[in-house]
């Protein structure tokens, strides 16, 4: 069964935060919900969780409405962290596990497993306020998954983490997905979404302006990226027919082009003019699609 958001609208007075949103998140998949600040992501998450009621529309998980009786099936990592700074790590996780209906005998081994995995076993008896921001983020993540939820909502999960810990958390997220957890994921880092998610939706002003399987969205975007590394004068490619965007790199240029025929024409043009070490045609990135669709609102 899937998570279904059906023609959902949420208004706060005269302000429409989410506007007739319809999405289906397949069971066991990872779904990226994207948008600039104020696009409606967090409001959507809170409606999925039942913390806010839609003004219009329906949200269903496994064919039924979400209410408190299903809270043990759902995990939530909010963008704004909600840990108790004075409580010790193990005390806090025990408390949160009990709130999810777990027994102490089941919680303790699960806590130890996660602390060991995240290399913070020695912090079990430290107060949260004594931990670094990155380690607090790990504890918040553990609190969201301790009860092994079927549906997991992650709002900016990698915020405040260094690259090593980002990889540690990403692998944990992927393990949850491999074990069948359905994950709805939001991040401003497009490369993380592109790496982890099969399906995405981009919100703008509460409306879905792009939605679908990421692979198909990239294929249908109608543009390609061309990376050229080498020595020579590349500046003349700025005005080459079919070049939509030009940016210089330390080793050459990166171009956004209209189609593969443009790439072939560029290769013929530069073959006798520059030394080429790399000539690579790539699918558009999620970053490209996001800038094109969301950036238009700011032009």
From TrEMBL:
Entry-linked PANTHER family: ABC TRANSPORTER ATP-BINDING PROTEIN, ABC TRANSPORTER ATP-BINDING PROTEIN NATA
Keyword Nucleotide-binding attributed: yes
GO-annotated molecular function: ATP binding
Domain ABC transporter: 3-230
Record's protein name: ABC transporter ATP-binding protein
Similarity-based family: Belongs to the ABC transporter superfamily.
InterPro entries per the UniProt record, alphabetical: AAA+_ATPase, ABC_transporter-like_ATP-bd, ABC_transporter-like_CS, ABC_transporter_ATP-binding, DrrA1/2-like_C, P-loop_NTPase
PROSITE patterns xref list: ABC_TRANSPORTER_1, ABC_TRANSPORTER_2
Keyword presence, Nucleotide-binding: yes
Organism from which the protein derives: Geobacillus thermodenitrificans
Cited SMART domains: AAA
Keywords on record: ATP-binding, Nucleotide-binding, Transport
């Amino acid at each position: 069964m899937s998570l279904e958001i059906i023609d959902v609208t949420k208004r706060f007075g005269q302000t429409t935060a989410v506007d007739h949103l319809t999405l289906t998140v397949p069971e066991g998949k990872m779904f990226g919900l994207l948008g600039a600040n104020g696009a409606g992501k967090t409001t959507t998450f809170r409606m999925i969780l039942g913390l806010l009621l839609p003004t219009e529309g329906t949200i269903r998980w496994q064919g039924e409405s979400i209410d408190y009786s299903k809270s043990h099936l759902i995990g939530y990592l909010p963008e704004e962290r909600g840990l108790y700074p004075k409580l010790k790590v193990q005390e806090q996780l025990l408390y949160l596990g009990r709130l999810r209906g777990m027994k102490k005998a089941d919680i303790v081994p699960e806590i130890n497993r996660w602390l060991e995995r995240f290399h913070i076993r020695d912090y079990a008896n430290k107060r949260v306020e004594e931990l670094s921001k990155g380690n607090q983020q790990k504890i918040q993540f553990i609190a969201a998954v301790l009860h092994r939820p079927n549906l997991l909502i992650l709002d900016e999960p990698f915020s405040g983490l260094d690259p090593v810990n980002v990889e540690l958390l990403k692998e944990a997220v992927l393990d949850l997905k491999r074990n069948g957890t359905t994950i709805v994921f939001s991040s401003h880092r497009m490369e993380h979404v592109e790496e982890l998610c099969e399906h995405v939706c981009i919100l703008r002003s509460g409306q879905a302006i792009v939605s679908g399987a990421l692979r198909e969205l990239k294929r249908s975007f109608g543009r390609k990226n061309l990376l050229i590394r080498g020595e020579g004068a590349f500046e003349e490619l700025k005005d080459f027919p079919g070049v939509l965007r030009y940016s210089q790199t330390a080793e050459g240029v990166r171009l956004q082009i209209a189609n593969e025929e443009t790439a072939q024409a560029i290769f013929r043009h530069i073959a006798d003019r520059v030394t080429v070490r790399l000539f690579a045609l790539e699918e558009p990135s999620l970053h490209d699609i996001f800038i094109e669709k969301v950036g238009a609102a700011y032009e």
